[in-house]
Amino acid sequence: MYDDSFGASLKRGYRGLPVAIRTLITLNVGIYVLQVIAGIFGPDYAKAVINNFAFFPDWQIALFQPWRAFTYMFLHGSAFHLIFNMLWLWWMGRSVEERLGPRTFTVIYFAAGLGGALLYIIAAPILGFNPVIGASGAVYGIMVSFAMLYPKMPIMLILLPPIQARYVVAGLIAIDALLLGSADSTARIVHLAGAGIGYLMIKWHRQGTDLSSWILPVEQLWYRLKGMVQEQSSKPRNKNMYSVSDVEIIDEDEQSELDEILEKISEKGYDGLTDAEKQKLFELSKKN
């Protein structure tokens, strides 16, 4: 009989997550653990984390401390707050990332989170100048993306029959709009702004805008820095030996493989390639 422990199943499921979602969930959970540890040392330490990394809707703070517009998305007020956001990200985000690719997914996620923060600056004089934390605005952008990409996908909610995704997400947005005047108006306005940015991003994507190109400069910088570290740590190469990049001839089989990869890019985009195909494309491009 096949014996599969809960830990092994959890590990396999974690590894099976798309790369962007897996990274975001790992960061959110890891940072929340650090928040809890800071709270164990005393309330002042926990408060210091919020004071330094939460987003404050003051334009001067936003201008001179711009990291807050990013770091606030990784802070959460409670375990329930974290679990709620990560579950929605997992439920709806997986299909979005598999459809659009990790780069476009990441752009939508952070654009929605940034949009939520920036809109709150405008709304703060009415709603109050309160610090905001949580990934909810970014997650709402992904939820709206899912509803636009898979509008009729049935969603199973507790004690309710299957409901199409577009109605579930529209209902959540309607609730936030109705509760704008409540005590937690801060969270509501961030949710609505994130949802609006998600809508705009998918509209631009459908119009042919390559959202993934927005993140390429950051990715290229990362690989450049990574390459510099690897180059410094690597041993000197024998000058009498030839590397693959020294060979400039592509044989017939390699040309056929290159054509297949290029055709796949034309159909699904670069994000649709597997890691092995991306590596092969890189190797062949150096020969060509």
TrEMBL record:
Family under the similarity heading: Belongs to the peptidase S54 family.
Please, one GO biological process term?
proteolysis
Q: Where is the DUF6576 domain?
A: 254-287
Topology relative to the lipid bilayer, per the entry, is: Multi-pass membrane protein
Compartment annotation = Membrane
Membrane-traversing stretches: 19-41, 69-92, 104-126, 132-150
Q: Where is the Peptidase S54 rhomboid domain?
A: 65-202
Q: Name one GO cellular component term.
A: membrane
List the Pfam families.
DUF6576, Rhomboid
Q: What is this protein called?
A: Membrane associated serine protease, rhomboid family
Q: Name one GO molecular function term.
A: serine-type endopeptidase activity
Using the UniProt record, give the first listed, main subcellular location. membrane
Tell me the first and last residues of the signal peptide: none
Q: Which UniProt keywords apply?
A: Hydrolase, Membrane, Protease, Transmembrane, Transmembrane helix
